[in-house]
UniProtKB/TrEMBL annotation:
Matching InterPro entries: L-rhamnose_isomerase, Rhamnose_iso-rel, Xyl_isomerase-like_sf, Xyl_isomerase-like_TIM-brl
UniProt KW keywords: Isomerase, Manganese, Metal-binding
Protein name as catalogued: L-rhamnose isomerase
Molecular functions (GO terms): L-rhamnose isomerase activity; metal ion binding
Family annotation (Pfam families): AP_endonuc_2 (PF01261)
Species of origin: Streptomyces minutiscleroticus
GO BP, one annotated term: L-lyxose metabolic process
Keyword Transcription: no
Length: 386
C-alpha cells in the first residue's frame, strides 16, 4: 500500500486544467440554454475558473479555444489570469466552425482551404508564444459522410503534411497534442478516428507530438484504460480530455456516468507513471442544464476521488495475487481500493492546504453565483460560436 503521506502528497500536487468553454453557454444541436451570470468575455471566464481553483486548489490552469477566446492582447490576458491566481494553459484550435470547412480543414480536397486551416494553426502557435502555453491541442472535425466521397488515403497524406508543418513551427518547449474521435461531425470516416491513427502520426512527427485521450471519443465498450496503459508504455500519452458519456460524445461531468471507469483509468495512469510525468489532465465538458461553476468543481473532485482510490490500491498485494494466479484475490484488491470512501481523506488534504474540506459548500457560501448573476447583465454571453 502506498504510504498515507505519499498518497496525500500526490493528491496535493494533482492539477486539473479547466476549459474556458465550459463556463460559457452550451447545449445540443437542438437547443443551447442560456444561464444567468454566464461570462461575456474571456476575462470573465477566467474569473470563474479562478473560483474553481480558489475552492479546489487543484485547477490552476485554464485551456483556451481559439477563436472563442480571441483577444487583441494575449500577453495581457495571461497577466489578467495571473492576477486572478490562475494561468493560461493549452491552446485549442478550431477548424470546424467556418463555412469553408464543410468538407474538412487540413484534409480538405482544396489546397486553399487547407492553407487557411494551417494558417489558423500557426496563429494558435503565435498565441502560445504570447501566453507562454506549452501545449497546442489539435482536434479535426475532418472526415467524410459517404463511401467514395473523398480518397481516404490522400486525406491522410494531407493531414501528415499539415501536422509536419505545425510541428516544425513549434518552439523547443512546446508540444503538439493530437486528439482522436471515432465519429461526429463526420459519420462515415473521420481522419483521426482512433488512438492508433493518432499514434502513427505522432510517431512520424517526433517526441513532442503526443496523443490526447478524450474519454468521450470511443465506441461503447472500448477499454480506455488499456489505451492509456499502451500510450504510457510508448511514452506518447500527452493529455486527457476528461468527461463522461452514456451514449455518444455526451460531454457530461467526468466520473458522473461511470466512476469505476475513471478509477480504472487513473489506476493505469499511476501504474504507468503518468501522474508525475508531463501528462496534462484537462476537462472537456459542457454543462448544459446544470450550474456551470459547481459542476466544474464537482468534476475536479471526481478526478481527485478516482485518483485517491487508485493511489490506495495495494500494489504489492495485487502483484502477489497476480503472480500466483489468484484471480479472485487480485480482483478483490482492486475493488477494495475502489470501494474505499476517500471523501474524508480528500477533505483532510484540502484542510491541510488551508481550503474548506467541502469545496461546493464553500463555493455556494461565497456568494459568487449571486454576484455574477447581478453584475453580468447585458452584453453577449459566451457560448458556442461566440
Ligand atoms: C471535439 O468533440 C472536442 O472534444 C475537441 O476537444 C474540441 O476542441 C472540443 O470538443 C470542443 O468542445
Ligand atoms: Mn476533446
Amino acid at each position: 500500500m502506498t504510504e498515507p503521506a505519499a498518497v496525500k502528497a500526490a493528491l496535493k500536487n494533482q492539477a486539473v486544467e479547466t476549459p474556458s468553454w465550459a463556463y460559457g453557454n452550451s447545449g445540443t444541436r437542438f437547443k443551447v440554454f442560456a444561464q444567468a451570470g454566464v461570462p461575456r468575455t474571456p476575462q470573465e471566464k477566467l474569473e470563474d475558473a479562478a473560483k474553481v481553483h480558489e475552492f479546489t486548489g487543484a485547477a490552476p490552469t485554464v485551456a483556451l479555444h481559439i477563436p472563442w477566446d480571441k483577444v487583441d492582447d494575449y500577453a495581457a490576458l495571461a497577466e489578467f489570469a495571473q492576477d486572478h491566481g490562475v494561468k493560461l494553459g493549452t491552446v485549442n484550435s478550431n477548424t470546424f466552425q467556418d463555412d469553408d470547412y464543410k468538407l474538412g480543414s487540413v484534409c480538405h480536397p482544396d489546397a486553399a482551404v487547407r492553407r487557411k486551416a494551417l494558417d489558423h494553426l500557426f496563429e494558435c502557435v503565435d498565441i502560445m508564444d504570447a501566453t507562454g502555453s506549452r501545449d497546442l491541442k489539435l482536434w479535426f472535425a475532418d472526415g467524410t459522410n459517404y463511401p467514395g466521397q473523398d480518397d481516404v488515403r490522400e486525406r491522410q497524406d494531407r493531414l501528415a503534411e499539415a501536422l509536419a508543418a505545425v510541428y516544425e513551427r513549434l518552439g523547443d518547449d512546446q508540444r503538439l497534442l493530437l486528439e482522436y474521435k471515432f465519429f461526429e461531425p463526420a459519420f462515415y470516416t473521420t481522419d483521426v478516428p482512433d488512438w492508433g491513427t493518432a499514434y502513427a502520426h505522432c510517431l512520424k512527427l517526433g517526441p513532442r507530438a503526443q496523443v490526447v485521450v478524450d474519454t468521450g471519443h470511443h465506441a461503447p465498450g472500448t477499454n480506455i484504460e488499456f489505451i492509456v496503459a499502451t500510450l504510457l508504455r510508448e511514452g506518447r500519452l500527452g493529455a486527457f480530455d476528461f468527461n463522461s458519456r452514456f451514449y455518444a460524445d455526451d460531454d457530461l461531468m467526468v466520473g458522473a456516468a461511470d466512476p469505476f471507469q475513471l478509477f480504472r483509468i487513473m489506476y493505469e495512469v499511476i501504474r504507468g507513471g503518468g501522474l508525475t510525468s508531463d501528462v496534462a489532465f484537462m476537462l472537456d465538458q459542457c454543462h448544459n442544464i446544470e450550474a456551470k461553476i459547481p459542476a466544474i468543481i464537482r468534476s475536479v473532485m471526481n478526478v481527485q476521488e478516482a485518483t485517491a482510490k487508485a493511489l490506495l490500491v495495494d500494489r504489492e498485494a495485487l502483484a502477489v495475487a497476480q503472480r500466483s494466479g489468484d484471480v479472485l484475490e487480485a480482483n478483490a484488491v482492486l475493488m477494495d481500493a475502489y470501494n474505499t470512501d476517500v471523501r474524508p481523506l480528500l477533505a483532510e488534504v484540502r484542510e491541510e492546504l488551508g481550503l474548506d474540506g467541502d469545496p461546493i459548500a464553500a463555493y455556494r457560501r461565497s456568494g459568487w453565483a449571486e454576484r455574477i448573476t447581478a453584475e453580468r447583465v447585458g452584453g453577449q454571453q459566451a457560448g458556442w460560436g461566440a
